[in-house]
Amino acid sequence: MLFDFEHFISMLPDIWKAFGETLLMIGISLSISLIIGLPLGIILFVTSKGLFLRNRFFNGVLGFIVNLVRSVPYIILLVALFPLTKILVGDTIGPVAASVSLSVAAIPFFARLVETSMREVDKGVIEASIAVGATPWMIIRDVLLPEAKSGIIQGVTMTIISLVAYSAMAGIVGGGGIGDLAIRFGYYRYDNTIMIATVVILIVIVQIIQLSGDAISKAIDKR
Fold this sequence. Notes:
Largest sheet: none
CATH topology: MetI-like fold
Helix content: over 70%
CATH class: Mainly Alpha
Structural class: mainly alpha
Strand content: under 5%
CATH superfamily: MetI-like
CATH architecture: Orthogonal Bundle
Low-confidence stretches: none
Number of strands: 0
Distance between the termini: 53 Å
Mean pLDDT: 90
Shape: elongated
């Protein structure tokens, strides 16, 4: 039988536990990526050529580091960060430990999305703000963030969806969550019911996130 409903019901406690671990991983890593990635994206933008805090050297070095981290496949990054993970959380397995590598992967990803969103802001508005004597902080707070907020929300949506995919991969090395459940039961035990259930759960999560993100982005976009 391809899908055994009774077996699915019996596995619900494990499925709910895995679902909770996935939410924990995503919640921790998303919070860290927003706290660090948002200002990082702003810095990448305002220090670029033609902007009010332009600094070619600083922007180049920062951009290189961001691109370097983004170019490393997540599964390799996950393993490479085991020593750092051990130092920070005292372990290399479990959802909290997996959140370290998830955060490192998500920060540069979100930062670039923030930078891209700000590049869509009308340069004339920025120049007008400079002309009336606005400080860099005022331009960022009163012009860039309000004008780019719709794109930033879309960036948050894309980041969460990427974290869902990354968290599933973290299950390969004992990160917990839906991916871990799929590997331990669906793959190693050839359990089609669990494999199908985990895939459906991930699809539903991604669809809900995408629809919610699109709705919020449209609601706050006043253009």
